[in-house]
Every structure is written in C-alpha cells, then in structure tokens.
Design a protein that fits this description.
By secondary structure, the chain is mainly beta. The protein is built from 2 helices and 29 strands. Strands 2, 4, 8, 11, 12, 14, 15 and 16 form an 8-stranded mixed β-sheet that branches. A hairpin with a 5-residue loop joins strand 9 and strand 10. The N and C termini lie far apart (115 Å).
C-alpha cells in the first residue's frame, strides 16, 4: 500500500511528458484544463463570381483564429475542381479550375510553401502536414483527378487577437470549360501542432475546421465560366448633365470576349430611354460591323424605334479587355417621346435617364463534347443612370504647386455650373461650405468665368 503514491506520481509524470495533461500540483490547485479545440482556424473564400473561359485569375482566402486559445502551425487546405463538368472523375479530359503552381500562393507579395496533391483513382490524397493520434498522415477524400493544395502560413502560431490575414491564390480556368456551369472552390483551416508548439500528435491532436476529411463538405464558393462580359460607361461629369442639345453626352459599350473564343453573328443592342435624343454613332470596333438599327435624331423615341443595334459577322477574344466597342452621343430632351416634360418647368427638379445594353452571339465551343449554342450576357442588361438637371454643379480640387494634400498645402477648388438649354435663372447664389481644418485664403479672391449668355 505504501507504493501506491509512487505509482500515482509516476503515472502523472508520464502523462505530462507525452500528453501535456495537468500535473498533480495543478489538480490540487483546482486549475481546469483548456477546452479541447479552443483554437479555431477559420477561413473565408473570396472568389470572383465569373471568369472568362481559358483565362487565369486570382482569389483570396482570409485566415483567422476565431477561438479562445493560441493555435500552432497554421495552414490552409484548398480543394480545386480540376475535373470540371466533363472530367468524369479523372477518366476524361478535365475542363475545370486548376492550381497555377508557377504563380502559386502569395502573402504580401511573397510566395508561400505549398503542397500540391492530386486525388488518386480511389479518391484519396495523403495530407502532408496533418496526422492522426497514431502518427499517420490523414487521408482526405475527393473526386479522382481533382486537387488538394495545402498552404503553410508563415507563422509559427496564430493567437486569437492577431489580425486576420489574406493570401492570394493563382488559378486557371480551362479553355474547355462549360459556359454558365458553376465550379466550386472549397477551403478549410488547420493547426498542425494543435494547442502546443510541439509535434505531440498522440495527445494534442491537429485542429481542423471543418473537422471532416471529406472535401465536399468544406465551405465553398462558385465560379461561373463565361464566354464574354459586357460593360457600359458614361462620359459625363459626376454622371450628370444639364438638359438640351448644348450638352451632348457619350456612352460606350464594351464586350470582353474570353481569350481565343470565337462568336459569330455577335450583336450589341442599346435601348435608349424615351427622354434621350440620339445624336450619332461616334465609333465602333472592330471594323466590318453592320448598323442593324439606329434611333432617329429628330427626337426621343419609344420602343422599338429607340434601339441602336450593331452586328459583327465574327469576333474573337484577344488578350485585352476591349474586344468589341461602340460609342455614341445623346442629349436630354425637353419633352419625352410621350410629350411629357422631362424636368418640371416650375421647380426644375432633377430626373434620370436609365440606359441599358445587351449582347448575344453564336458560340461553337473548343470542347467538342459541348454543343454549339447562342450565348448572352448573363443576367439583366448592363445599365448606366444619367442624372438630368436644370442647374447641375460639379466640384473638383487640386494642390497648388502639385503633390499630395497635407498640412500647410494650399488647395484650389473649382466649381462648374451649367444651365439647361430650357431654363433661365435670376439671382443665382453659389454656396460652398469649407470643412473643419481648412482656412480660407483671403489673399486669393475668387474668380468667375461665364461662357455663353453673350459673354
């Protein structure tokens, strides 16, 4: 019986040495052990909603410790859907998203250590960092042919108070990808050494979030392959204009076609609102287009006479972002196509002109497994809103002598005012409120220049 205390002390010593458990002194003092998995490696995917077919792209993953204790040996697991829609579990040519190992994963511009693994024919990949309590590296399950990329973060530990970090991941979308078929990237976080800086896998297990080693259960975010994207811009100061023909404004519609992809019978259609007057088609490229329809310049129009429509026999995507463009001019009318005033004649209150464009073309995919189809710009037409005003004002600022704004610098403010062709104003007062921290320079008297009105 006298030997029992010795045996107890020896047992506690061995557990402390190998498992990091409480000592007898801690037990007697009533100190509670740390909760299991008190460190929580959390990740957040930020991927583009769409990517042009056949092009490279980047996405970010934010890593944070959202638990209550320090985690050691932080890393990120990323699942790449290399198979895509037609890869058939590694048994056919893949057409999905692959890891760009040449560019890799970067943090603050520096490449990080990564481990790139392909799921074998059994759908298994041996994790290079995480081990179970028997010392065996864990097996992650995924679709054969897809990839697991493990990223070692450049920190020995990650405390809960530490700011979250974002790493940049480089990827490529196959030029055989199926248009409009989303592909899901997935990720999770981990601490390879658990709650201690020691590789004591037997008793301080690796921390994974989520804990499942089935990659399809990890949080994911979809990327939709696209054949082309459409955008529209407005050349007007602060997206506003005075009304009337003295204030023509320019719209530009741009189509970016995926690199190497060809579209036949490509048509861009711009629907002018019924309070804008079409002035002219300024330019369009590439050459060889046909003007299918153009609004009359005599006044604003209701559908279908409000459409500017151009067609190209064939266009192919290049390395730039402006494969097809058209630019045209308009102005805001006094009356809309229905004879109603665009701006209230008494108050001069503002109105808007909502201008939208759409496009479509016939596409024969590079991948012979996919059928030819007509593709359109996804979702709703792209729109731009022009603010119609009777007395618009714009404000700009510059540093006198150049350089950046800083204490002691002199700022020069310029205010520009336009008067609508359809209004006249008396006793116009222009008020500018100087913000706190700035002082009026009385040595420079304000100046005014008037253009028009006989001046």
């Amino acid at each position: 019986m006298l030997l029992k205390p010795v045996h107890v002390l020896l047992l506690v010593f061995l557990l402390s040495l190998f498992g990091g458990q409480r000592t007898l002194a801690e037990d007697e003092a009533g100190v509670l052990p740390r909760p299991l998995f008190a460190a929580t490696p959390s990740v957040l995917l930020n991927v583009p909603t769409s990517v042009p077919i056949g092009e490279s792209f980047t996405f970010t993953i934010t890593f944070d410790n959202t638990g209550g204790d320090t985690g050691y040996g932080p890393f990120i697991d990323i699942y790449f859907p290399v198979n895509g829609a037609d890869g058939a579990g590694g048994t056919d040519t893949p057409d999905g998203i692959d890891f760009d190992s040449a560019q890799g994963v970067t943090y603050l511009g520096q490449k990080l250590t990564v481990h790139e693994l392909t799921f074998n024919s059994s759908g298994k990949a041996t994790h290079p960092l995480a081990r179970d309590t028997s010392g065996n590296y864990i097996q992650v399950t995924g679709t054969p042919g897809d990839k697991l990329v493990v990223v070692e973060l450049p920190f020995g530990s990650f405390v809960p108070a530490q700011p979250a970090i974002s790493v940049t991941v480089h990827a490529t979308l196959s030029n055989l990808a199926d248009a409009a078929t989303p592909l899901t990237l997935r990720a999770r976080g981990g601490f390879r050494f658990g709650l201690t800086p020691i590789d004591d896998w037997c008793c301080d297990p690796v921390i994974l979030n989520p804990g499942s080693n089935t990659a399809s259960s990890w949080p994911g975010s979809g990327v939709t392959p696209t054949v082309f994207t459409l955008s529209k811009t407005l050349n007007a100061p602060e997206s506003e204009t005075a009304t009337g023909p003295n204030y023509p404004r320019t719209f530009t519609v741009t189509a970016d076609i995926a690199d190497g992809q060809k579209l036949d019978n490509f048509v861009i259609t711009d629907d002018l609102p019924n309070n804008l007057v079409f002035v002219s088609l300024v330019s369009a490229s590439p050459a060889g287009y046909t003007v299918v329809s153009s609004p009359p310049t005599s006044g604003p129009q209701n559908p279908p006479d409000n459409q500017l429509k151009l067609q190209w026999t064939s266009v192919t995507g290049g390395s730039g972002s402006s494969d097809v463009t058209l630019t045209y001019q308009v102005y805001v009318s006094r009356l809309d196509a229905n004879g109603s005033a665009v701006l209230n004649a008494t108050t001069g209150a503002s109105n808007t002109s909502q201008n939208s464009a759409s496009a479509q073309g016939d596409w024969t995919p590079t991948d012979t497994r996919d059928p030819a189809t007509t593709v359109t710009h996804g979702g709703t037409p792209v729109g731009v809103t022009l603010a119609d005003k009777s007395l618009p004002v714009q404000k700009s600022v510059a540093v006198v002598g150049g350089g950046d704004p800083k204490p002691g610098a002199t700022l020069e403010y310029t205010l520009e005012v336009q008067v609508s062709d359809f209004f006249a104003f008396d006793s116009v007062t222009l008020t500018d409120v100087i913000s706190d921290g700035q002082h009026f320079d009385s040595s420079f008297p304000p100046t005014i220049t008037v253009n028009g009105n006989g001046y």
